[in-house]
Amino acid sequence: MTPFIDPVVVGTDGSAGATAAVEWAADHAGLRGVPLRVVHAVDRLPYDGPRYPIPDCYDKLTPSGRQILDHAARVARNRRPGLVVTTQVTEGRPGRVLREQASGAAEVVIGSHGAGGFPGMLLGSVGNQVAGHVAVPVVVVRPTPTEAAAGIVAGFDCTETSGAALAYAFEEARLRGQRVRIVCAWEPPVPYGPVVATDLDGMRRAAEEYARGELRPWQGAYADVRTELDMVRGHPVSALAEASARAVLLVVGSHGRNAFTAAVLGSVSRALLAHARCPVAVVRGVLS
Protein backbone atom coordinates (compact mmCIF):
# COMPACT_ATOMS: atom_id res chain seq x y z
CA MET A 1 0.00 0.00 0.00
CA THR A 2 1.44 3.40 -0.99
CA PRO A 3 1.93 5.66 2.04
CA PHE A 4 0.02 8.94 2.11
CA ILE A 5 2.13 11.92 1.07
CA ASP A 6 1.20 15.40 2.26
CA PRO A 7 0.47 17.64 -0.73
CA VAL A 8 1.46 21.19 -1.50
CA VAL A 9 -1.71 23.25 -0.96
CA VAL A 10 -2.33 26.37 -3.04
CA GLY A 11 -5.22 28.78 -2.65
CA THR A 12 -6.82 30.34 -5.70
CA ASP A 13 -9.53 32.86 -6.50
CA GLY A 14 -8.98 32.92 -10.25
CA SER A 15 -6.97 36.16 -10.25
CA ALA A 16 -3.69 36.61 -12.12
CA GLY A 17 -1.79 36.53 -8.83
CA ALA A 18 -3.46 33.28 -7.85
CA THR A 19 -2.63 31.73 -11.23
CA ALA A 20 1.02 32.62 -10.69
CA ALA A 21 0.80 30.94 -7.29
CA VAL A 22 -0.68 27.80 -8.87
CA GLU A 23 2.20 27.67 -11.37
CA TRP A 24 4.76 28.12 -8.60
CA ALA A 25 3.10 25.48 -6.44
CA ALA A 26 2.94 23.02 -9.34
CA ASP A 27 6.67 23.46 -9.99
CA HIS A 28 7.42 23.05 -6.29
CA ALA A 29 5.27 19.93 -5.93
CA GLY A 30 6.89 18.44 -9.03
CA LEU A 31 10.39 19.08 -7.68
CA ARG A 32 9.54 17.48 -4.35
CA GLY A 33 7.61 14.59 -5.87
CA VAL A 34 4.41 15.30 -3.93
CA PRO A 35 0.82 15.89 -5.12
CA LEU A 36 -0.81 19.31 -5.47
CA ARG A 37 -4.12 20.31 -3.92
CA VAL A 38 -5.81 23.45 -5.25
CA VAL A 39 -8.30 25.03 -2.84
CA HIS A 40 -10.96 27.68 -3.33
CA ALA A 41 -12.77 29.25 -0.38
CA VAL A 42 -16.41 30.16 -0.85
CA ASP A 43 -16.86 33.04 1.56
CA ARG A 44 -20.51 34.02 1.82
CA LEU A 45 -19.96 36.90 4.26
CA PRO A 46 -19.43 39.63 1.65
CA TYR A 47 -22.74 38.67 0.08
CA ASP A 48 -24.83 36.96 2.76
CA GLY A 49 -25.06 38.78 6.07
CA PRO A 50 -26.97 37.40 9.06
CA ARG A 51 -29.33 40.39 8.93
CA TYR A 52 -30.15 40.00 5.24
CA PRO A 53 -29.50 36.36 4.37
CA ILE A 54 -29.51 35.20 0.77
CA PRO A 55 -31.20 31.80 0.37
CA ASP A 56 -28.86 29.08 -0.93
CA CYS A 57 -25.97 31.56 -1.08
CA TYR A 58 -23.33 28.82 -0.82
CA ASP A 59 -24.98 26.73 -3.55
CA LYS A 60 -25.03 29.77 -5.85
CA LEU A 61 -21.37 30.63 -5.28
CA THR A 62 -20.04 27.08 -5.54
CA PRO A 63 -20.38 26.63 -9.36
CA SER A 64 -18.15 29.64 -10.07
CA GLY A 65 -15.68 28.28 -7.53
CA ARG A 66 -15.56 24.95 -9.35
CA GLN A 67 -14.92 26.76 -12.64
CA ILE A 68 -12.01 28.57 -11.02
CA LEU A 69 -10.64 25.26 -9.74
CA ASP A 70 -11.02 23.56 -13.12
CA HIS A 71 -9.00 26.34 -14.74
CA ALA A 72 -6.33 26.16 -12.02
CA ALA A 73 -6.06 22.37 -12.37
CA ARG A 74 -5.51 22.74 -16.13
CA VAL A 75 -2.81 25.34 -15.50
CA ALA A 76 -1.05 23.04 -13.05
CA ARG A 77 -1.22 19.96 -15.30
CA ASN A 78 -0.01 21.91 -18.31
CA ARG A 79 2.82 23.26 -16.23
CA ARG A 80 3.80 19.86 -14.84
CA PRO A 81 2.46 16.96 -16.94
CA GLY A 82 2.02 13.86 -14.81
CA LEU A 83 1.59 15.82 -11.57
CA VAL A 84 -1.19 14.48 -9.34
CA VAL A 85 -3.62 17.40 -8.92
CA THR A 86 -6.77 17.45 -6.79
CA THR A 87 -9.20 20.31 -6.16
CA GLN A 88 -11.43 21.27 -3.27
CA VAL A 89 -14.14 23.87 -2.68
CA THR A 90 -14.52 24.77 0.99
CA GLU A 91 -16.87 27.21 2.69
CA GLY A 92 -15.35 29.69 5.07
CA ARG A 93 -13.10 32.70 5.48
CA PRO A 94 -9.95 32.31 3.34
CA GLY A 95 -7.48 32.63 6.19
CA ARG A 96 -9.24 30.02 8.30
CA VAL A 97 -9.63 27.67 5.33
CA LEU A 98 -5.93 27.77 4.54
CA ARG A 99 -4.93 27.33 8.18
CA GLU A 100 -7.12 24.22 8.34
CA GLN A 101 -5.68 22.93 5.07
CA ALA A 102 -2.16 23.36 6.44
CA SER A 103 -2.69 20.61 9.02
CA GLY A 104 -2.44 18.03 6.22
CA ALA A 105 -0.07 19.84 3.91
CA ALA A 106 3.64 19.90 3.19
CA GLU A 107 3.39 23.61 2.39
CA VAL A 108 0.84 26.35 1.74
CA VAL A 109 1.16 28.68 -1.26
CA ILE A 110 -0.83 31.85 -1.95
CA GLY A 111 -0.61 34.67 -4.47
CA SER A 112 0.54 38.17 -3.67
CA HIS A 113 -2.78 39.73 -4.64
CA GLY A 114 -6.27 38.34 -4.79
CA ALA A 115 -9.71 39.37 -5.93
CA GLY A 116 -12.58 37.35 -4.56
CA GLY A 117 -12.24 34.09 -2.64
CA PHE A 118 -8.86 35.17 -1.27
CA PRO A 119 -9.21 38.97 -1.06
CA GLY A 120 -6.18 41.00 -0.12
CA MET A 121 -3.85 38.01 -0.19
CA LEU A 122 -0.57 39.73 0.67
CA LEU A 123 -1.31 43.34 1.43
CA GLY A 124 -4.62 42.46 3.05
CA SER A 125 -5.23 39.99 5.80
CA VAL A 126 -4.85 36.51 4.32
CA GLY A 127 -1.07 36.38 4.08
CA ASN A 128 -0.68 37.58 7.66
CA GLN A 129 -3.45 35.25 8.86
CA VAL A 130 -1.63 32.19 7.53
CA ALA A 131 2.11 32.86 7.64
CA GLY A 132 3.40 32.16 11.13
CA HIS A 133 0.11 30.62 12.27
CA VAL A 134 0.80 27.18 10.84
CA ALA A 135 3.58 24.67 11.34
CA VAL A 136 4.38 24.25 7.64
CA PRO A 137 6.15 26.78 5.39
CA VAL A 138 3.96 29.42 3.75
CA VAL A 139 5.02 30.85 0.40
CA VAL A 140 3.62 34.14 -0.87
CA VAL A 141 4.29 34.26 -4.60
CA ARG A 142 5.40 37.57 -6.01
CA PRO A 143 6.92 38.20 -9.46
CA THR A 144 10.46 36.83 -9.82
CA PRO A 145 12.99 39.50 -10.85
CA THR A 146 14.26 39.22 -14.41
CA GLU A 147 17.84 39.29 -13.13
CA ALA A 148 17.53 36.66 -10.42
CA ALA A 149 21.24 35.92 -10.26
CA ALA A 150 21.56 35.47 -6.51
CA GLY A 151 19.65 32.19 -6.36
CA ILE A 152 17.92 31.70 -3.02
CA VAL A 153 18.36 34.33 -0.31
CA ALA A 154 17.96 33.34 3.33
CA GLY A 155 17.82 35.70 6.28
CA PHE A 156 20.04 34.61 9.18
CA ASP A 157 20.19 36.11 12.66
CA CYS A 158 22.14 33.35 14.44
CA THR A 159 19.10 32.28 16.49
CA GLU A 160 17.18 29.01 16.67
CA THR A 161 14.40 30.59 14.63
CA SER A 162 16.77 30.77 11.67
CA GLY A 163 17.39 27.01 11.74
CA ALA A 164 14.11 25.99 10.12
CA ALA A 165 14.45 28.72 7.50
CA LEU A 166 18.00 27.66 6.67
CA ALA A 167 16.96 24.02 6.32
CA TYR A 168 14.21 25.06 3.90
CA ALA A 169 16.57 27.30 1.92
CA PHE A 170 19.24 24.62 1.58
CA GLU A 171 16.71 21.97 0.55
CA GLU A 172 15.26 24.31 -2.07
CA ALA A 173 18.72 25.14 -3.38
CA ARG A 174 19.61 21.47 -3.64
CA LEU A 175 16.40 20.66 -5.52
CA ARG A 176 16.77 23.61 -7.89
CA GLY A 177 20.52 23.33 -8.37
CA GLN A 178 21.04 26.88 -7.14
CA ARG A 179 23.20 28.60 -4.59
CA VAL A 180 22.18 30.09 -1.26
CA ARG A 181 23.05 33.64 -0.40
CA ILE A 182 22.84 33.98 3.37
CA VAL A 183 22.25 37.56 4.45
CA CYS A 184 23.21 38.45 8.01
CA ALA A 185 22.36 42.04 8.86
CA TRP A 186 24.08 43.69 11.80
CA GLU A 187 23.96 47.10 13.39
CA PRO A 188 26.35 48.63 15.95
CA PRO A 189 24.79 49.11 19.37
CA VAL A 190 23.20 52.48 20.15
CA PRO A 191 25.53 54.28 22.59
CA TYR A 192 24.18 55.39 25.93
CA GLY A 193 25.88 58.03 27.98
CA PRO A 194 29.15 59.52 26.74
CA VAL A 195 29.96 58.59 23.15
CA VAL A 196 32.79 56.07 23.09
CA ALA A 197 34.87 55.46 19.98
CA THR A 198 33.76 52.16 18.40
CA ASP A 199 35.86 49.84 16.28
CA LEU A 200 33.24 49.12 13.60
CA ASP A 201 35.62 47.00 11.54
CA GLY A 202 36.38 44.90 14.58
CA MET A 203 32.69 44.51 15.37
CA ARG A 204 31.98 43.43 11.82
CA ARG A 205 34.79 40.87 11.87
CA ALA A 206 33.54 39.47 15.17
CA ALA A 207 29.96 39.25 13.88
CA GLU A 208 31.11 37.54 10.69
CA GLU A 209 33.32 35.07 12.55
CA TYR A 210 30.42 34.14 14.81
CA ALA A 211 28.02 33.77 11.87
CA ARG A 212 30.46 31.58 9.95
CA GLY A 213 30.85 29.35 12.97
CA GLU A 214 27.08 28.97 13.27
CA LEU A 215 26.76 28.19 9.56
CA ARG A 216 29.58 25.64 9.39
CA PRO A 217 27.39 22.62 10.33
CA TRP A 218 24.86 23.58 7.65
CA GLN A 219 27.53 23.92 5.01
CA GLY A 220 28.87 20.52 6.00
CA ALA A 221 25.45 18.90 5.77
CA TYR A 222 24.83 20.51 2.35
CA ALA A 223 28.31 20.32 0.90
CA ASP A 224 26.84 20.07 -2.61
CA VAL A 225 25.14 23.47 -2.30
CA ARG A 226 27.13 26.59 -3.05
CA THR A 227 26.82 29.15 -0.26
CA GLU A 228 27.72 32.79 0.16
CA LEU A 229 27.63 34.73 3.43
CA ASP A 230 26.85 38.41 3.04
CA MET A 231 27.37 40.54 6.15
CA VAL A 232 25.35 43.73 5.72
CA ARG A 233 25.49 46.65 8.10
CA GLY A 234 21.93 47.87 8.37
CA HIS A 235 18.42 46.86 9.31
CA PRO A 236 17.40 43.31 8.32
CA VAL A 237 14.34 44.50 6.38
CA SER A 238 16.38 46.85 4.20
CA ALA A 239 19.14 44.28 3.67
CA LEU A 240 16.80 41.44 2.75
CA ALA A 241 14.49 43.56 0.60
CA GLU A 242 17.47 44.73 -1.42
CA ALA A 243 18.83 41.18 -1.73
CA SER A 244 15.43 39.95 -2.91
CA ALA A 245 15.71 42.09 -6.04
CA ARG A 246 18.07 39.48 -7.51
CA ALA A 247 16.64 36.30 -5.96
CA VAL A 248 14.26 33.58 -7.10
CA LEU A 249 13.12 33.06 -3.50
CA LEU A 250 13.55 34.83 -0.16
CA VAL A 251 13.36 32.63 2.94
CA VAL A 252 12.76 34.12 6.37
CA GLY A 253 11.97 32.68 9.77
CA SER A 254 9.05 33.30 12.07
CA HIS A 255 8.82 32.78 15.81
CA GLY A 256 5.26 31.49 15.56
CA ARG A 257 2.63 32.08 18.19
CA ASN A 258 1.79 31.03 21.71
CA ALA A 259 -1.33 31.50 23.76
CA PHE A 260 -0.09 34.76 25.26
CA THR A 261 1.16 36.44 22.08
CA ALA A 262 -1.12 38.36 19.76
CA ALA A 263 1.50 39.09 17.12
CA VAL A 264 2.29 36.09 14.96
CA LEU A 265 4.87 37.42 12.55
CA GLY A 266 7.83 39.39 13.76
CA SER A 267 8.34 42.88 12.39
CA VAL A 268 10.95 41.67 9.90
CA SER A 269 8.81 38.90 8.40
CA ARG A 270 5.75 41.10 8.23
CA ALA A 271 7.61 43.95 6.53
CA LEU A 272 9.19 41.63 3.98
CA LEU A 273 5.80 40.20 3.01
CA ALA A 274 4.96 43.75 1.94
CA HIS A 275 8.27 44.86 0.46
CA ALA A 276 10.19 41.87 -0.92
CA ARG A 277 10.68 41.82 -4.70
CA CYS A 278 10.45 38.05 -5.21
CA PRO A 279 8.46 35.11 -3.77
CA VAL A 280 8.76 34.90 0.03
CA ALA A 281 8.76 31.72 2.12
CA VAL A 282 7.96 32.19 5.81
CA VAL A 283 9.19 29.19 7.80
CA ARG A 284 8.15 28.92 11.41
CA GLY A 285 10.84 28.12 13.93
CA VAL A 286 10.50 27.20 17.58
CA LEU A 287 7.53 28.60 19.45
CA SER A 288 8.39 31.45 21.74
Folded structure, characterized:
This protein is α/β, with parallel strands linked by helices and 288 residues long. It folds into two domains: 134 residues, HUPs (Rossmann fold); 133 residues, 3-Layer(aba) Sandwich (Rossmann fold), CATH 3.40.50. 38% of the residues lie in helices and 19% in strands. It is built from eight helices and ten strands. The protein has a ten-stranded mixed β-sheet with strand order 3-2-1-4-5-10-9-6-7-8, with helices on both faces. The protein starts with 7 loop residues before the first strand and ends with a strand.
Tell me the layout of helices and strands.
Layout (H helix, E strand, L loop, with lengths): L7 E4 L4 H17 L3 E7 L14 H23 L5 E7 L2 H9 L4 E5 L14 H5 L7 E4 L10 E4 L5 H16 L3 E7 L13 H22 L5 E7 L2 H9 L4 E6 L12 H9 L4 E5 L4
Parallel strand pairs: 1-2, 1-4, 2-3, 4-5, 6-7, 6-9, 7-8, 9-10
Antiparallel strand pairs: 5-10
Helix pairs in contact: 1-2, 7-8
Notable characteristics:
ATP-binding; Universal stress protein; 288 residues; Rossmann fold; alpha/beta; 8 helices
- CATH architecture group name of the largest domain: 3-Layer(aba) Sandwich
Q: What is the C-alpha radius of gyration, as a whole number of Å?
A: 21 Å
Q: Which structural class matches the secondary elements?
A: alpha/beta
Write down the CATH class of the largest domain: Alpha Beta
CATH overall fold name of the largest domain: Rossmann fold
Mean pLDDT score:
81
What series of H and E elements makes up the topology? Answer: EHEHEHEHEEHEHEHEHE
> Largest beta sheet, briefly?
10 strands, mixed
Shape: elongated
Strand percentage, roughly?
Answer: 15-25%
Number of strand segments:
10
